[in-house]
Amino acid sequence: MPLSVVCLLFSFLLLPVVKAGSHSANPEVLISQSSGAAKMSAESFSNLLYDSLQLDALGMSREALKLAYKGQQNLVKKGVISNSLRESGPRVLFTALLLLLAFKVITLKRFLGAFSLSFFLPALILYLVVRKTGEFFFNPGISTVTARLQGKMINFGLFLFGAQFLNLLSRTIDTFILTAKAERGLADTAVFTIATYVVTLMEIPQRSINAISIPVLVEAWKSKNISSISNIYTKSVANLLIIGLAMFCLILLNVHNLAIFLGKDYKGIEMVVFFLGLSKLIDLGTGANTQIIATSNYWRVDFTTNVIYTIVALPLNFVLISYFSLMGAAYSTLIAISFYNCMRFIFLWYKFGLQPYTGKDVLAIIYAAAASFISYQIPAISNIYADSAIHTLVFCLLLYHVIILLEFVIILQFHYAF
Predict the structure, then answer these.
(1) Residue 197 maps to a domain
(2) With contact defined as beta carbons under 8 Å apart, do 217 and 295 qualify?
């Protein structure tokens, strides 16, 4: 599985950025130009990127790109330490603790204690850094803007927090119910957790594209540019769908090797991965619907849909896990995620007339299925690593030409601006 993921990411790096129509951006030129960005003003460099990437055709304004670029520069200047401590720090500590546990240097009890405190050290270092730079201070005063808008700010914050909390609860409650109701208890929970981690790989492009789309959507809503929002919606669906299809098919082509590697204690993981992957593919295939709703005047809909999602997911998990044990959790996830995204799709279609799907999306599904079927016909070999490499390479080569043929507009080209 790790080898297949590496091959997939390598193929994405080689994937040319293709733009529908007669114009195309040259990433190599942009990268070479980026090296001189430090010598240029933020406005000059953002204008250069805007013209080179022809972002006007994507509905993005010059002002939005300039603000995004300035924000990125601030992150580079001030956020390197905080991001490293928040993201890399705990992972380095987790790895060190696991190695110590594996070599029996520490006991399980000490491991759990150190694991629970592993976020304290990065927080302490960050606190010392901001104190030293003089950027850590409290302002007890309340500004006039805060005093005037505090009711709306509290209302918005509570709705946002509630929506995220309910969404997280609905997506994690299945493991607790599995432990209590499944036939093998914690053993089934372990299988489901590993399958969840495998499928989580599909979220990587979703997080990137969603983060990129938010500032553009805010600018579009501010100017009431529905056509630009529709364009972003369509592009997010196209890109997330093709990337999600590629990752989903690669996971399915190699999941039998994962089962062999894990051993007989993880039997049944193949079908769990299939249904969880299918639910994640549906989530990816609905694009940036969450970001579109959350940045609009109808942000309360985000909270409402999460409440309904929770009301549906909790009893559904309990009933299906009680009847189908491990597979019940997979069925429940697929049904609940499909219903959740269907609500959001219907709302955007009914309220704003936004419908992001085109004939190319259907072709992408057909071609990905065909490429997967052809790759699946390759006879399996005993070495699981070589088998994964061969299946992955054949599938990526087949899908690579399909992507060029369909001329998907890769919104990740914004990466060159950042």
Answers:
(1) yes
(2) yes
Q: Which amino acid is at 31?
A: I
- Does 242 share its domain with 347? yes
Same domain as 115, residue 216 = no
Q: pLDDT 10s digit of each residue in the chain, 418 long?
A: 444 433 433 333 333 333 333 333 343 333 334 444 444 555 676 677 677 666 666 556 666 666 666 655 655 555 555 656 665 667 777 788 888 888 888 888 888 888 887 777 777 877 787 777 776 677 777 777 777 877 878 877 787 777 778 777 777 788 888 888 877 888 888 888 888 888 888 887 787 777 778 888 888 888 888 888 888 898 888 888 888 998 999 999 999 888 888 888 888 889 999 999 999 999 999 988 888 998 888 888 888 888 888 888 888 988 998 888 889 889 999 999 999 999 999 999 998 889 899 888 888 888 888 888 988 888 888 888 898 899 889 888 887 766 655 544 444 444 433 3
Q: What is the CA radius of gyration of the chain?
A: 23
Q: Which residues pair with 128 in a beta bridge?
A: none
3-state secondary structure of 177: helix
Tokens of 46: 């953002």
Angle formed by the axes of helices 62-83 and 203-222, nearest 10° = 140
Specify the DSSP class assigned to residue 409.
Answer: B
C-beta separation of 221 from 295 below 8 A: yes
Q: Is residue 412 packed enough to be buried (19+ CB in 10 Å), middle (13-18) or exposed (0-12)?
A: middle
Q: Does residue 92 share a domain with residue 224?
A: no
217/348 same-domain check:
yes
**335 and 261 together in one domain:** yes
Tokens representing 358? Answer: 């085109």
Q: How many domains does the chain have?
A: 2
CA-nearest of 213, 208, 284, 275 to 9 is 208
Q: Which domain holds residue 126?
A: 63-137
Of residues 26, 23, 32, 14, the one with CA closest to residue 58: 23
